[in-house]
Amino acid sequence: MQTLKTNTEVLIRRRGPTGLALAAELTRRGIDPVIIDRQAAGANTSRACVVHARTLEVLEPLGESADLLALGVQVPIFRIRDRDRILITVDFSEIDSPYPFTLMCPQDRIERSLLSRLQNAGGGVVRPCRLVAAANRVGRSRRRLKSTER
Predict the structure, then answer these.
(1) Whose CA is closest to 61, among 26, 33, 95, 25?
(2) Which residues of the chain have pLDDT under 50?
């Protein structure tokens, strides 16, 4: 059983790509967030498969963009087809970005990469754990912060 901190400046609920990226960036900046997740382990399936140029730009200070580029496939022109008929063409090649493409990369790979970065920086995810109550920093009762493992 993991011991939970009773106080934290930042509590992140759920450890999807957004929560992991936030936790990694905060850790990089010297803030020690607590990140909790109800799942006993990380997902091994993908619910998304595209990383957009702006996301890669935001993840660059973490050093994560280069890692994601190695995990995915760069797609400068995206087409949706119905057999031989092109229904939609989206051209990312003219985006004003160092990443003029969309990156096809399954979400479970992205999560593993971000979790590895967080762990290498000394952070981690408390699981299985759920938020049952929280209180704000000055003690006024909004919700009480009390995380418990299942």
Answers:
(1) 25
(2) 141-150
| Measured distance CA(81)–CA(102) in Å, rounded | 17
The token duo for 21 is 């990226």
What is the Cα–Cα distance from 123 to 135, expressed in whole angstroms? 23
Q: Are strands 125-126 and 129-133 parallel, antiparallel or unpaired?
A: unpaired
Contact 13, 109 (CB under 8 A): no
* Residue 49 CA to its chain's centroid (Å): 13
pTM of the model: 0.77
Strand partners, 78: 90
pLDDT at residue 97, rounded to an integer: 96
Q: What is the pLDDT of residues 60-82, one digit of tens each?
A: 999 999 999 999 999 999 999 99
Query: Residue 60 corresponds to which tokens in the numbers above?
Result: 């660059």
Which residues are CB-neighbours of 115 under 8 A, at least 6 positions away? 15, 20, 42, 125
